[in-house]
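Office hours follow-up: a student asked to see two folded examples consecutively, so here they are.
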Amino acid sequence: MEELHKALKDRDLTVSTVHGKGRSLVTARDFYPGDVIINQEPYVCVSTHKRCDGCFRTTNLSKCSRCHVVWYCGTSCQKSEWRLHRLECEALSRLDDRKRKSVTPSIRLMLKLYLRRKLQDEKIIPSTAMDNYKLVEALVAHMSDITEEQLVLYAQMANLVHLILQWPEINIKEIAEIFSKFACNAHTICDSELRPLGTGLYPVVSIINHSCLPNSVLVFEGRIASVRALQQLPKGTEVLISYIETAGSTVTRQKALKEQYLFTCVCPLCSKVGQYDDVRKNAILEGYRCKNETCDGFLLRTTDGQAFQCQECGLIRDKEEIKKIATEIKLLSEEASKPSSSANFQEAISIYKMIEKLQTKLYHPFSINLMQTRETILKSLMKLEHWREALAYCKLTIPIYQRVYPAVHPLLGLQYYTCGKLEWYLEDTEEAVISLTKAVDILRITHGTNTPFVKELLTMLEEARAELTYKSSSKEE
């Protein structure tokens, strides 16, 4: 690990051991909002959909004619991946059609891991201080913490990998342990708008610990993982990112972290559990609304457990009434989740609007559940090109985004971006300039100013400003 320490020192970073956390990445100089703290190519990665294995694009795809599993967008990506895929292709081609269909992205990630290690051991592809198998070996597996059911699943997956590779020197237990490492350390690769594209293993980025109040953000530029500072990080500050969606109650966040990453978070936000502010916030995010629609108070269960009482005005809400509305929402949600074709897509939107109407009666106006329903309706309306109505729903979500996310958060920036695009398209130019400016203020920090996405956003803002200036001068004339 001495080589890694030297490589990180050249990047003004150090690795320290923090009690209760293990290895941590720490700054060796001051970093400022938007600064790239570290970036890394994946040791291995796979797409989780029908995408090019080299660049994750979805256009001009051709399937590998031999293994019939991997896709490429052209000869350039195929050549860049050939040394690794040649071995993978040979292994996959030995399988019959039934077994080949059972090769999931996780199985492929494991295959590529072993094949990449083999190629590096044989000096066919180079290894560096930040790109070698020893970094994978150093990752935590949490084998003693996983359930028996999960162990059985890893063993089954390991058997399939062993069958595909047919290497006598590797053992099932080792493969199963690495699958456990994937679960705790692999990252979902997303595009600039945070839509998932694939999965990658970034061993150095995996040193960075979690906080529900992170000081940094992980975004992706193609396959490269890039960690940027969200605020000023003085020398000696531990770099922290969020592993999960943080817009939820403390209980919800803790549950997600325990199930996926097998640890209990003790960040400043989680340490407030049980305190009044935390109880209030959680009741607003995931609890019920006051029966008085003009009151924005939050409800807590009464001491006898038979009702909920508003902590603002004291009104009681019957438990059975809440249960009745919740049951109606559940039934409608099951109906809405059924696969739908474009022909009855509008019907699905109608169902979600009924859910929204019930949720406004049941949940607090700043409820996460209500926000998610409106987000679903928004995306559906955009698919149907119902732009004006989509804009109305986008504006409904903004206040909740502002409440549940910090002032500098990529999801808030992207919501302003969506709002601005819709406003500009609908010729609400003045509003578009305001929304796009807010988007730029956030996304230039989280995504950087040199990425194609932000460059396109800046161009859009310049054009919107020019259009607004023209409209204003035309009115004066």
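And the second, which I mentioned at the end of office hours:
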Amino acid sequence: MNGPLRSASGADPGQQVGKRALSRPAIIAVLALAATVGILLALVVFPAESGTGAGGAGHLGKTPAQFIAPHPTPLRTVVAGQPVTRVAAGLHSLAYGTNTGGVYLESGRTGLRRIAVLTRPVEVLSFDSTGRWLAAADTDMQLAVADTRHPQAPVLRQRLQVASRYYSGLPPRMLAIDTTGSHVAVQTDMIAVYSLRDHRPPHWLDFSNPCDSPDDLAFVKGDLIAATQGCVNVWNSSTLRLYRRAYPPTTGKARIGHGRVLYGTFSHVFLLNYRATDPLPHPPVPGPENPKPVLGRVIADKTISSRRSPVQPLADDGRIAAAEQDFRLTFWDTASHRILGHTPLPVSPSCAADKKQATAQFYSSLSPDHKTLTVTAVCGPARTGLAPEEEQRRTTYHHWEFAYPTP
């Protein structure tokens, strides 16, 4: 019984060393092959995400890994022989405002038709949240509201006002209309709400803090919301009483999205849930008895670039958000924080090449069904102090339409 054991243990040492020397390379080769196969399998099963990298990584969500960013489709730049100054996305339609005050509606069913006429260049253009009512205001403080479902209905008109005579030459900056088509909120030097049915004097909204210059204005589910660079003010749209205020972590450009506010700073964007802030006491005056409201809950944030350049928020449909930076659109999934893709904006060299003009003003509109995004780039002249007519003549406009992505 002991023979075989002694025979094995008594083998030639040189032969044992040779066997071990031959087995080591084989083991290393097998391990290397296994590692290579594993990496390949990982690459096949988990394809790399577009846009991930510095500040772009996030946990996997339900958004497909393969994402193709939508390409811009050029829109009309001239209607009825006049330059288009503003574009808005409606429900299966597009609205155009021109340099001479013409307001036009275009759809596949009716084609292009004029629905209102103002006196000066259209400065702001906005649909209500259903896409039925279209409001437009020009630089001469004229307001027109049209019912797009009933083209034969009369256009409602109103002369806009300013709160202080020192701002008499200030054109309207923001515009919002409710779903009844009877109330319009307009930002000039302050925010005024106009009742178009009974022609009462405008109701000037009460501010008790310096957050009175909004980047966006909207009627959302019984609320009138003004999103500024420093805070979000929420009024009850029926009583027009300020009852909620939220503060972002830092100042930045604001855009009202799907029940939240999209902010853009330098290279960074985030979403602020203004409804998470406790309602204000009445009257909403900060002080020992009425402490300053706490910060609204930040839902998500994303670094979209390492460049120090202003980020302009454009749209948020509750799933995918879009922002512009350096003439490039970035789309990301707000649930998983994943950057989905980038789309360059083909702006003409007259705006992008000149450093004094490279900071174009961008205006956007997301259709009520969240299927169409329109983007307008306004490239003004490099010189300042020009006469309004000369400045208008040197301003160029670029308009695009995007099929808004869906996850």
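Two things to take away from it. Residues 1-22, 24-61 have pLDDT under 50 and may be disordered. The longest helix spans residues 13-45.
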